[in-house]
Amino acid sequence: MADPPGCCCACATCLLCPYSCQWITAKKEKRKGLRTTKYDCSWFFFLFGVFLFTLVWLYFAIIILNDFHNFNEFIFRQKKLWLDWSLVLLIATAVLISYSSVLLILALCLQLCGQPLKLHWVHKILLILTALVVAAAFTGLGIKWAEEWKSARISLQATGPFLHIGAVGGMTLLAWPLASFIYRTRSTGLRVFLLIVYCAAMIALYLAPLGITSPCIMEEKQLPHKPALFGHRGAPMLAPENTLMSLHKAVDCDVQVFETDVMVSADGVPFLMHDEELTRTTNVQAVFPERAALNSTAFNWTDLQQLDAGSWFLERRPFPTVQSLSPGDRKEAAEQRIPSLGQALEAAKQSNISIMFDLRPENHSDYQNFVNVTLEVILQSGIPLQQILWLPDGFREDVKQQAPGVQHIYGRKRLMNEKEPVLHVNLPYQDMSSEEIRQYRQDNISVNLYVVNQPWLFSVLWCSGVSSVTTNACQVLKEMKHPIWLLPSNTYFMIWVVVDCVSFLIIIWAFFLMKKCSHRTRPAESETDVLLTKINSLMQE
């Protein structure tokens, strides 16, 4: 296999050594008569498949970052170990994708230089391990975190047009080494097979926009109003969650609703707390080590007031934003205590924001009393009842009778035969399609989706017309004055046609150019083959 013009032996050697793990010059490889066999080709296709497999996992890893704080909390509840596992995920994924990318680039360059693709056995083992690791990651995702598959489908509404352009560009560049291989290989069947597969892939990519839909493909004048922001446990990236500091930080981010969780102490005082245990967000293990594993409702209010509800935030750094807090904010965070519902209602009343909450735990034997005690605190606080957004489903009819002004939020979609009209729903963002959001909007039903942290996801929901979102990143979404991208359908159609046409012309040029290069090298190859045949005949005689 001869080198094409312009490919020096030194460059070929530099490419060959890391790929084959053999420090031998390209000229020696030629003298040995090594060629790329079908076995070598099969390993190249396996390498290409592993690269694509890892690339898809990289995409998933980036998408699930929106929900990764939930995974960190889950691991803490199971193992009592706090770590930002998103860093581990990204570092491991970066290593895998970098390794497979470097090998693939080396293989393509070797093919262009006319060198044999002799993949070393060490690389073969590492590629198999890479495929197994990524497969295990996908399997674990499907078993433990199946809703993220829905997140991936939603993400395609934000990334679909750009993934199409990237895929067309990548496959277009692949035309160069593919043309080089086709014009060099002696197997007609392999040539035909590769051409058919490549042409089918390109036709599918050229027509892919027919199946791409996104709510952000619209005219500027059709864009709905920006969704309102609900602070998820306040502003948990800027202050310890479910504290008065978090509420005030959320107000600074222009949130309209403070979303929180309420529990009731052993002596009947409602207080703000998400977890059933106090270990994650307080120093209960230091103050009450023998009772640390008890349910939050087993502590009386006097005990709860002794706990530090802020230092954990500075020590564990649940979000990267903790590092950028000012000295004043750090001091304030360290002084936070568990607030009662009454204190939170007073702060919400003074700040003129609404408060939405879950009442936990729903399966408690004394849950009805929890509802009554909570309602009593609300009515005594003096806060306008329209600022209370009631989420708990248990004993909802009693709440409607005792506090008729409270707004009721339902954690489900509307039913066909509703006795009373549902005016507000609160659902995970994975549970509603863009079409359903538009339909609810037309029917004057307020839709709040949670938890939305990434700008790309906020942009898709904004274009869909969602009423509000619950977020950890209110300080980020506050600054967004416009969706990340918005394209009129005519503009997108023009981009689609131009990209496909340019790609087609480049592919034709690549095959034409590589054909000319192959014709220049054929005479030299023919003379060499004749000489080798004569030498072989003389040796046999």
What's a concise summary of this model?
This protein has 541 residues and is of the alpha/beta class. It folds into 3 domains: 10-25 and 35-145, no CATH class; 150-214 and 487-519; 228-273 and 338-478, Phosphatidylinositol (PI) phosphodiesterase (TIM Barrel), CATH 3.20.20.
User: How far do the termini sit from each other?
Assistant: 27 Å
Q: What is the CATH C level class of the largest domain, in words? A: Alpha Beta
Kindly state the percentage of residues in helix: 55-70%
Unreliable residue stretches: 1-6, 25-33, 524-532
Order of helices and strands: HHHHHHHHHEHEEHHHHHEHEHEEHEHEHH
Largest sheet features: 9 strands, mixed
Return the structural class.
alpha/beta
- Total domains: 3
Strand content: 5-15%
CATH architecture of the largest domain: Alpha-Beta Barrel
Mean pLDDT figure: 90
Query: According to CATH, what is the topology of the largest domain?
Result: TIM Barrel
State the fourth-level CATH superfamily of the largest domain. Answer: Phosphatidylinositol (PI) phosphodiesterase
Protein name: GDPD2 inositolphosphodiesterase
Main location: membrane
Keywords: Glycoprotein, Hydrolase, Membrane, Transmembrane, Transmembrane helix
Family: Belongs to the glycerophosphoryl diester phosphodiesterase family.
